[in-house]
Known about the structure:
mainly alpha, 19 helices
Amino acid sequence: MRKKESFLYYLNPENVSAAVARYGYTYRIRNTVFVYLTVLAASGAAGFVFRLDFVEICVVALCGMSMVPRVIINSYRNMYEQKRFSDVNLYMEQVLYSFKKMPKIITSLQDVEKIMPKDSPMRSTIQEAIRYILYEYSEENSIEAGLKIIEQSYRCQRLRDVHTLMVKTEKIGGDYESSIKILLSSRAIWETETCKFQKECKNRQRMVNIALVLVCGVCLFTPLMITKFAPIVDITSSQVYKIGTVLMILICMRTYLKADTLASVNWLRSECAMTDGEQLALYQKVKQYDFVRERKKSLLWAAAAAGLGGLLLLLGWRLPALLSIPGIFVMLNQHKLGHKLAKKRCAQEIAKAFPQWLMEISLLLQVSENVNAAIAKSLEGAPAILAEGLEDMQEHLMQNPESNEPYMNFMREFQMMEIQSAMGMLYSISSGRGGDADMQIDEILSKNASLLSQSESLANDGRLAALYWQFLFPSIIGGGKLVADMTLVTIAFMTTSMY
Length: 499
């Protein structure tokens, strides 16, 4: 697979067209050839403007041609992912409304199949699922198997939640209208936050592109102006200038490609980027943090830093020796800093996972108002970051089912007021002290809507931060190039003055 995605593989226009075809679009070979010729022409123009030699122009052209196929593929991938998001969003909304009118899965699928556009891959997938459910008798649970056809084509947790609700309702009944209300609210929040994220990604990418153009313009302006007004200190013939210019152009192209790749998002992805194993390891690291052992490590690292500082002082390097003092302080406290960072990251993952678990509890409470039973059932599919805390809570509830301590002690060490408030509401429902249970469940749903919105924002922050760094990177590139150019100008001016 890596060989197919290599630079040499995509130099063949046929392979670019084949890669685009995987997303359901047609891209002619002649279009790729035209783009390659455009890159060659642009490289020649850049070489002329920046006063580069033939070899440097060839390097820029070759690197540009190696990056262009990925830009082309990303553009079609963006359209593909946007279409998938729209299809899944429309499917979930319509299938829930249809199921609300008549709680029959096959009827709901047939209703949605009529609404989907004829050229939509989702329509074909729904038709395949309907055929399987109606005519496949070899499977004992043909409905679940038919729904899995859709789930496997569009790997989205929310889609699985919708199907789970439909299957449970058709089998055991329950107050499915309230459950549908929960999922429709979750879908609406997901749509709103995702659309905001899409706009923000486009804005960040546009900012990166503007920054890159400005960097190239500034780096071009300085040597050309100096050459025009002081031809005697022309630096464009220097190899240092040419190598620096080529590096600047290549880094700018690479930054553009990186930003373009970061903006090519799978909108149906899971909210949590960490695996279950990573979540569990992070939680255990915070819960079982050994301060005594880590403090010993801090002392060893601080002693090593102090020894290095003493050695530098003996060698007469006073400034580096002084700079080692902050390093010693950091090493002495690295165990505290490490625990603080791990706890912060753990809290972020809990904030992402908790709303999904709370929604599962809300769904289970529609079938049974027994909170303890709902919590026990939720353990099976609970997020890994919450699993150990939920198991502890369940164990304490079995020992003392009337106490509020198991609820209020859940994730208490992270001091998250939203979680404490939601758990307080669950205890009120469990004890029957809060009045009307339906009203309390509605309050939980309202609370969960806010938490879901925050969870979506947290899930998107990482990619937006990466795009923001791509925006800052061009200024670092341009600053370094300007320093190098001005150094060459100074050296050339001083050399000329001597003669």
